[in-house]
Write a structure and sequence with these properties.
With 1104 residues, this protein is mostly beta strands. Among the domains are: 74 residues, Immunoglobulin-like (Sandwich), CATH 2.60.40; 75 residues, no CATH class. Helix content is 8%, strand content 45%. The strands form 14 sheets. The protein has a 22-stranded antiparallel β-barrel. Strands 10-15-16-13-14 form a five-stranded mixed beta sheet. The longest helix is centred in the N-terminal third of the chain and has 14 residues. Keywords: Cell outer membrane, Membrane, Signal, Transmembrane, Transmembrane beta strand, Transport. Belongs to the TonB-dependent receptor family. It holds the Pfam family CarbopepD_reg_2.
Length: 1104
């Protein structure tokens, strides 16, 4: 550690040291206004020798002889100038209006001109990332890269964000793209969400620790050829992040300050009906709960006659809300009126503040940037908050004319209190439904007693005075509040990511680069669950700790030789080695059977001793040798070939060595031919490559447990799952071609890519017969493919001295198909809802993710068949396809309008095609919660008038104006006649009560043997939307107005994120309210994650 700290300190000290006896120097200025440009990289072509311009745009280099200097800076066109014996070389740089000469960072941290790339990438600038001050960079990528889909968990700054590139690339082991920061692979992963019936916390993933304010740019490597050098880490693409380095806008140390803040509120409220309160159908209310025919239950309290609805009911078919006085379940009299905003009242107004201060400097010997960012976040869900501190140090030091050293260090300290939870319990669980008549203040007052204990049920003897007056349904909602407001779940993480890169120019054309990095995370969680009752009633409460440490140790070595073979042909060959070791330490301990003393949070307080606990250590090793050959012909034809040979410890010997080749080519038509003047630039490209996807560590191992029988030891397979020593790596073979064109001096252009891939040896877990002794086994089960188109259209429709309008449309289409599965497999089950009521399959010939279930029974003419009871019949003899969870199209439209010092950015993104599953919607309709359950409830809502025969119980319709049946029976107006035909083929005329119609047709349980009338087709919805994702308006104060204040680059901004939908096919819910980062879970749990939000805020940026 001491040596590493010295590595950090020495460059900072030496950067400011004076340098003498330089052989060549000069000044770099801007073409537009003649101002000096600090932080320009000045390198000698063919060598690693270089310098950075200082605050005055000046540089010096110790070179002699004839050389070519390369001047490059972010936002400017790269310039090459021959020294021609001069000792002073002054240059001016043009601002880059296109990416023609843009230098991008590719695989293995190798910088290349984008025009030489034979594969598709997307470059995202710092300005595009930070325009709306997001808490993580991934949330800023919506719609900005064709073929890249973002799935942010609706839990705010502490919740994971998923990234998907070019569709689904693994049926059973889809992962997140590889994250590479300043050349070093770091930890990311998927959200580690709890199961349905567990504590429901919305988990995080590693990318949340990458501070957007420290990012210089992001390059997204999409295809196999682009990422083949990363081998088995790159099946799902690579996100290459370059962080900001040092520069100064003035002589000496420069300071950049960024301040932002926003508020976030619930953006989508379920379309609840607001007319009827709790209760079942009339017959159930009266027979089972003693209610009258309107749903009122009458009783006497303190000698006074009172009434109340059936609070025990999850359904909302009770009395109509009429403003009458009701004896509530907390013992208070209240008006029985609609609480139109009770869903929003459950949430709060969230807030986020971000403050960044960065110190930077650049001299001819190097540069540094030191920054600190403070994030404070409070989400919309009650009880939680986040505090995050991020430190970043980025240094570059020219040790000698031939040696440069780059040192980068990131440290993140984060504290999360009561991270948000999924709302399964409230939307997908009948024990969590609350009524449109419920006041949130009642729940907030009753989740705990005045003595600080958990709420007391109606039939408990613990606290007669404070117990609930009735048996209420929404007890899980009370539990939700107890967990979030009474209990404490505190997480503390410390993440340290240092790296050092040494470049050595051995001789002209021969360079050696060595890099080492560490990603270490220490995660600690402390759980304090309060005592729910007095100790005299029994031990309760719990205490637990979790300690997880992970360490990524990374290193690579790259030797590169460049040679001009002829006047027109240049060759560069590189060989290298890369290795990574991952180590995970897990430890947990918790009390058992309650605490011996109320709220004594210690393992020593465990009622049952000793406290329970576990520890484990896991490791993963990967290494690989690779080679790269680059050929350039006459500055218009570029060819690259790569080859990687890799080993991974996650598979058994014999199957753990892989070879990943790649080849690509770029042919610049505009340099090879004299194209029409209107064509500014034209390039064709093509690429082919191979990448892989191995299983997680250890799961391929064949594991046995030990036992004994009559003293004789024996081994048997582990019950949780059996490995497979013959398991192979998933391998993706991908081909792509592309065409890029720009016109009218770069005023317009397009970039189109077609890709096609095949992923072989798909890995998944299959169930096994019970006789084997293990519940499942891993297998390679088949092949799948994707093909698609990615298109970017961009241009400047209007450009004048004061006003400009820039537009970019990104569009992507992806089609997927399962080609084959292993013998004996008709399909793979990816998800199973409610005991087989609905399946998500991967079936040969279809895109993975097809939705299958049981549909209504139909006659030969396609009419729905209605049974004698008046309810639809379900055909359980066959499964029917209802859709697919993969979308067909996605993209975004970005418009930027600039008028003098004002800038307005508007981003709209869209997703089209595909379906989502929302059990929330199905259950809510059957429970009478949603507006779509209003039809038929009374005459105003189209209800059929009928009376119930006192003898037969049959419902018989009557005409308008009839108040009584022939025997004086009361006439009701809440009848519905299901549209269809009887089993005999006649038009159905049987009347059923509206509450029965909804409860029997939209509820839990539409599987064979259930005897229900429910089809889960009613839980499947089209997923099409167009969303206003971002709007930002900024104003940069003219520098002349600030000259006396000695501050520069002052920009004031207002912004909004996730503002509203122009259109969405799913009504009453937000299609982005899914759970997790997995492609299946996201689409099959809409409405169960957390409420979606919109954010509005502002920012201030300035420098001095």
């Amino acid at each position: 550690m001491t040596k590493f700290l010295l590595t950090l300190i020495i460059p900072l000290v030496m950067i400011s040291a004076p340098v003498f006896a330089q052989s060549i120097g000069g000044t770099v200025k801007s073409v537009s206004d003649g101002s000096p440009i600090p932080g320009v990289s000045v390198t000698v072509k063919g060598k690693t020798l270089g310098a950075l311009t200082n605050s005055q745009g000046q540089y010096k280099l110790a070179i002699s002889g004839e050389n070519t200097l390369i001047f490059s800076a972010i936002g400017y066109k790269t310039l090459e100038v021959a020294t021609a014996g001069r000792t002073t070389v002054d240059v001016t740089l043009e601002e880059a209006t296109s990416s023609l000469n843009e230098v991008v960072v590719t695989a293995m941290g190798i910088a290349k001109e984008s025009r030489k790339l034979g594969y598709a990438t997307t470059q995202i600038s710092a300005k595009d990332i930070t325009a709306t001050s997001p808490t993580n960079f991934a949330s800023a990528l919506y719609g900005k890269a064709p073929g890249v889909t973002i799935n942010a968990n609706p839990g705010g700054a502490t919740s994971a964000v998923g990234i998907q590139i070019r569709g689904v690339n693994s049926i059973g082991y889809q992962r997140q793209p590889l994250l590479v920061v300043d050349g070093v692979i770091i930890r990311n992963g998927d959200a580690n969400n709890e199961g349905y019936w567990n504590n429901q916390k919305i988990g995080a993933n590693g990318l949340l620790d990458i501070n957007p304010e420290n990012i210089q740019d992001i390059n997204i490597l999409k295809g196999a050829a682009a990422s083949a050098l990363y081998g088995s880490d790159a099946n799902f693409g690579v996100i290459v992040i370059t962080t900001k380095n040092g520069k100064s806008i003035k002589k000496g140390i420069g300071v950049d300050v960024s301040l932002s803040g926003n508020v976030e509120k619930v953006s989508t409220v379920p379309d609840f009906q607001t007319e009827w309160g709790p209760g079942y159908e009339r017959s159930v209310n009266m027979a089972s709960f003693g209610a009258d025919d309107q749903g009122w239950i009458h009783t006497t309290v303190n000698g006074q006659s009172v009434k109340y609805p059936n609070f025990r009911s999850y359904a909302q078919f009770g009395p109509k809300m009429d403003g009458s006085d009701v004896y509530w379940w907390d013992g208070q009299m209240r008006k029985y009126t609609t609480q139109k905003n009770n869903w929003k009242q459950f949430y709060r107004t969230g807030s986020s503040t971000i403050a960044t201060v960065a110190l930077s400097n650049a001299t001819d010997r190097g540069s540094y940037r030191l920054s600190f960012t403070r994030n404070d976040y409070q989400g919309i869900q009650i009880g939680g908050k986040q505090e995050k501190n991020t430190f970043n140090l980025n240094t570059k030091y020219f040790v000698t004319p031939k040696v440069t050293l780059d040192v980068v260090m990131n440290y993140v300290n984060e504290k999360v209190h009561n991270r948000p939870r999924q709302i399964y319990y409230l939307t997908n669980n009948f024990g969590g439904f609350f009524s449109p008549a419920d006041q949130m203040s009642v729940f907030f007052n009753k989740y705990q007693t005045s003595k600080g204990y958990k709420w007391v049920d109606y039939n408990s003897n613990l606290d007669v005075e404070e117990r609930l007056k009735y048996n209420v349904r929404a007890k899980d909602f009370l539990d939700f509040l107890w967990n979030q407001l009474a209990n404490k779940y505190d997480e503390t993480s410390n993440r340290f990511m240092p790296s050092a890169t040494l470049n050595y120019n051995i001789v002209k054309g021969l360079n050696l680069r060595g890099r080492m990095g560490i990603d270490y995370t220490s995660f600690n969680q402390e759980t304090k669950e309060r005592s729910t009752q007095p100790i005299s009633a029994g031990a309760s409460g719990s205490y637990g700790t979790v300690s997880n440490n992970s360490t990524y140790t990374y290193g690579d070595l790259l030797l590169t030789y460049e040679r001009q073979l002829s006047q027109k042909l240049n060759a560069t060959i590189s060989v290298g080695y890369q290795a990574r070791k991952e180590k995970y330490n897990f430890a947990s301990a918790s009390t058992r059977d309650g605490l011996t003393s109320e709220n004594w949070f210690s393992l020593s307080a465990s009622k049952t001793s000793p406290a329970q606990g576990s520890t484990s250590v896991e490791m993963l090793l990967k290494d690989g040798m690779f080679g790269i050959l680059n050929l350039e012909y006459n500055n218009f034809l570029f060819v690259e070939g790569t080859l990687r040979r890799e080993r991974s410890s996650s598979l058994a010997p014999g199957n753990n060595t892989f070879v990943y080749p790649g080849v690509s080519s770029s042919f610049e038509l505009s340099n090879a031919f004299n194209l029409p003047a209107a064509v500014s630039y034209s390039k064709l490209r093509g690429a082919w490559g191979v990448v892989g996807n191995p299983p997680d560590r250890y799961i391929a191992n064949q594991v046995y447990s030990s036992g004994s029988l009559d003293g004789t030891p024996y081994l048997f397979p582990a019950t949780s799952g059996f490995g497979n020593k013959n398991l192979k790596n998933e391998m993706k073979y991908e081909f792509e071609i592309g065409w890029e064109n720009r016109f009218l001096k770069d005023r317009a252009g397009f970039d189109i890519t077609y890709y096609s891939n095949k992923i072989k040896d798909q890995i998944t877990t299959l169930g096994t017969p019970s006789t084997i002794g293990s519940s499942s086994v891993l297998r390679n089960v088949g092949d799948m493919r994707n093909y698609g188109i990615e298109l970017s259209l961009y241009g400047t429709p209007v450009k004048s001295s004061h006003f400009s309008w820039n537009a970019r449309l990104n569009f992507a289409m992806n089609r997927s198909k399962v080609i084959s599965l292993a013998d004996g497999l008709a399909q793979l089950t990816l998800d199973n809802k409610d005991n087989g009521s609905l399946y998500v399959y991967a079936k040969p010939g279809e895109a993975a993710g097809s939705i299958w279930g049981y549909d209504h029974m139909k006659d030969a003419k396609g009419n729905y068949v209605v049974g004698d009871d008046g309810f639809y019949q379900i055909d359980y003899s066959k499964l029917v396809k209802f859709g697919n969870i993969q979308s067909k199209f996605s993209g975004g439209l970005m418009n930027t309008f600039t008028y003098k010092n004002f800038s307005l950015g508007v981003l709209t993104d869209f997703v089209w095609g595909g379906q989502v599953i929302s059990l929330s919607r199905l259950y809510g309709t059957g429970s009478g919660l949603y507006k779509n359950s209003l039809f038929g409830r009374d005459a105003e809502h189209g209800g059929v008038a009928y009376y119930k025969d006192a003898t037969t119980g049959k419902l018989t319709g009557v005409g308008a104006g009839v108040d009584n049946g022939p025997k004086g029976e009361k006439v009701y107006h809440d009848g519905i006649i299901a549209q269809g035909v009887t089993t005999g083929g006649e038009k159905n005329a049987t009347i059923v009560e509206a509450p029965q119609y909804y409860r029997y047709h939209y509820n839990w349980g539409g599987y064979p043997g259930s005897g229900s009338n429910i089809t889960y087709k009613d839980a499947v919805f089209d997923n099409n939307f167009i969303k206003l994702r971002e709007v930002s308006l900024s104003y940069t104060i003219p520098s002349k107005a600030l000259s006396k204040l000695k501050i520069q680059n002052v920009t004031v901004s207002a912004y909004g994120r996730n503002l509203f939908y122009f259109y969405k096919s799913l009504t009453g819910l937000d299609p982005e309210e899914g759970v997790g980062t997995g492609w299946v879970s996201r689409a099959t749990s809409v409405g169960a994650g957390n409420a979606a939000t919109r954010s509005i805020g502002g920012s201030l940026r300035f420098s001095f």
